[in-house]
Amino acid sequence: MATTVTGAKPLTKKGKSLGGRPGFPGGNGDGSGKRNGNEGHFSQFESSADRYRIGMWIALAAILMMFTALTSAYIVRAASSTDWRPIAMPQILLLSTALIITSSGTIEVARRKLKAALEDSYNRWLFLTAALGVAFVVSQLLAWRKLVRQGVYVASNPHSSFFYLLTATHGVHLLGGLIALIYLLLRTRLTERHDQALAKQHAVTDAVTLYWHFMDGLWIYLFLLLFFWR
Amino acid sequence: MSGETHEAVHRHPAPTGFVWKYIFSLDHKVIGIQYITLALAAVLVGMTMSVLMRMNLSWPGTNWPILGTLFPGGAPGGMMTPEFYLSLVTMHGTIMVFFVLTTAPQGGFGNYFLPIQIGAEDMAFPVLNMLSFWVTFVGFIVILSAIFFSGADSTVGPIGGWTGYAPLSALGQIAGPGQGMGMNLWIISIAIFCVGSLLGALNFITTLLNMRTRGMSLMRMPLTCWAWFTTAVLALLSFPVLLGGGILLLLDRLAGTSFFIPGGLYVSGILSGTNPNFPAHTGGSPILWQHLFWFFGHPEVYIAILPGMGATSHILATFARKPVFGYRAMVFAIFAIGLLGFFVWGHHMFISGMSPYSAMTFSILTLSIGVPSAVKTFNWLGTLWGGRIRFTTAMLFAIGFVSLFVAGGITGLVLGQTSLDLPMHDTYFVTAHFHLVMGVASIFGMFAATYFWFPKMFGRLMNESLGKFHFWITFIGVYCIFVPMHTMGIVGMPRRFAQFTEYEYLKTLHPLVVLVTVAAITTVLVQIVFYFNLFWSIFKGKRAGENPWDATTLEWTTASPPPHDNFAGHLPVVYRGPYEFAVPGAANDFVMQTEPEVTQQPVGSGRERTSGNGHDGHRR
């Protein structure tokens, strides 16, 4: 309580008469305050595992903005010039797409296994997701190699420039997701058995799952943009 | 609070070693001071460059022996070359916009005070917070390295201005000295800066949404928090666009793509495709870069000034001893400014050949920003109206902010109209406008914030006499610098020209040019007083208590400086709005946010007081 307020002693006394445990005067300040309000043991860092989920949504907004900017550049560049020569779609990209859609499914299963407290099963599904992620990256690299063999490079024409740029940018973000998956895999072994750690694990897993779904959706979007829009 | 200690569950224990305490600190307060220190260093570089530019403009052709010694290539025999001047323009703009106006208000004061003002122990992601500072720091090192390794010893960086317009920025060394490695370093620095800012923005938004203490509803937050929040949203949505554009630009330069480079260019006597230094390009769109850049660039203006608006609102209320007039209107005005800021980027491009219909749309949207800006201005005046004003240095700077914001904003209405912008474009009128409203006003906001929060940050007060001296010279100085520039712009003096000796119609303006330079040098010199005051007061200033200004918000409930976890284990509980000054019937003329309700209402149903402005803002 503030000690600097001098002229309001009776008021302070009323506050104290509540056992120093006031409820929620008006607002819901802390996002999860309601759950912890009367437990007496209150700290933001243990109570707000939500921040991982919120943080992920916010990060996705930023990533979305970047790809929006690149998309607008793509559309403007495609529409405003005569040198646009669409490259033929490397067939292996269909495999990439299948792989990443599947991985989106497996990570969702993993997340649900964690919610159901099936640790081993969670582990396995997570591992499968990471493997599919690696396979996706390899498949993308094979697509690049195929194009290089055809003599299609970054600077060959604007469409190939955008193809390499967008796949690379998506790939870098996906590698970030892979690192997060590896982190989760390592964490399953180290998890301490108490509520806080569990809440954090759930929240982080939710956040990574969200990111992975986003990467999946983003790839499908880029795939459509690159080869079916124009 | 039931009294148990919370140190044990604080996210990260107070560090002990020097490195973890002061360098790679996870403490938002230390990180805030790091950001401020970075800005204090960067602003010295930027100011020095502006003085050099002014000297060249006023006394062209003069020999400055020291310049010749320091930059034998850029100022052979002590005489500045036009390229050297242009690189000064570029680096001054870049360093000031990114490393001063974006770091100090948001990264610095926001980092330090946002968690404390919402009653949090730290930011939501302390490690991310540390990373965001160090990433930004690396960006600063890279931009400084451009001074020394720009690929041409005749410049101190690229020469294309802080907007880096394509195609000259996309071509490489062939486009001019400094456009080779200097431009590469510039882009890389900005890209790094974008990443750092994004990490910071992510942290700010999450912290504000998730870490508010009990009772701290959104409408009970100080306006500073709203400003930092909106700024973070702007940064989050605009920096990725610049990053994307920067990657495209870098690819054009290094990978031979043609995103921004049209075909058939003829540069420095070489036709595109006829020289290995100038490979063939086709079909790129230079205007595309302008769109991407200004889609970031306009929100960036608000990133610079919104925190100043927040600090000004906060300080005006505190020293006028009155609630902020129209708290809700102020919040919505901040949002409106931020939102509209995303739809007006085209007004930087009226002469790019855009359709007059688009130009008119951008023009109308631009002028409509005047509405929330006016709401803010009138509410500031309303806050001052009838108050028992305490003219502290912080208050003077806050009032100065209002003055500069109005003076600079008015000319925004002039430039926002296509028909007026066409003749004014790229003249000193534009320079004057954005320096007043984005540069100096933001800096005044930061000066106000510094004088206001210094006692909280260091436990000592800054010297008021020196502060007032600093204020008056700076205030008069900046008006002497930037008001004559409007006249120059109306006469038609173009921006970014190294000297005007060749132009007969500008000769009559020369006395004004000299006046501006004298004012600029005086203003820069008086900043020495500020720096002295700052460092002297850290050690020798008068001791400040917890709440030297009789202010109401949470940062004033804790020790000065606050302990590692901000509230020494007791998270505050908030019962009321942030600006309860002069409350009728209260014993003091200020009521802290942590003061429980006056009425006999059961705690938890105090809905009738969701904002701190239950009364109309007038002293009764």
Short overview:
Helix content of chain A is 74%, strand content 0%. Chain A is mainly α. Chain A is elongated, with a radius of gyration of 25 Å.
Oligomer: heterodimer
The total of beta strands of chain B comes to: 2
Q: In percent, how helical is the residue content of chain B?
A: 55-70%
Rough shape of chain B?
globular
The H-and-E topology of chain A, N to C, reads as HHHHHHHH
N- and C-termini, Cα separation of chain B = 35 Å
- Please indicate the count of domains of chain B: 1
Number of helices of chain A: 8
Give a quick account of the main beta sheet of chain B: strands, pairing sense, barrel closure: 2 strands, antiparallel
Using CB atoms under 8 Å apart, which protein chain pair has the greatest interface?
A-B, 67 and 87 residues
H/E element order of chain B: HHHHHHHHHEEHHHHHHHHH
Largest sheet of chain A: none
Instruction: Kindly state the number of beta strands of chain A.
Output: 0
| Strand coverage percent of chain A | under 5%
Q: Say which CATH homologous superfamily of chain B is assigned.
A: Cytochrome c oxidase-like, subunit I domain
Architecture per CATH nomenclature, i.e. the level-2 architecture of chain B: Up-down Bundle
**Spatial gap, N to C terminus of chain A:** 64 Å
Overall mean confidence score, pLDDT of chain B: 91
Shape of chain A: elongated
The CATH C-level class name of chain A:
Mainly Alpha
Report low-confidence residues of chain A grouped into runs of 5 or more. 1-42
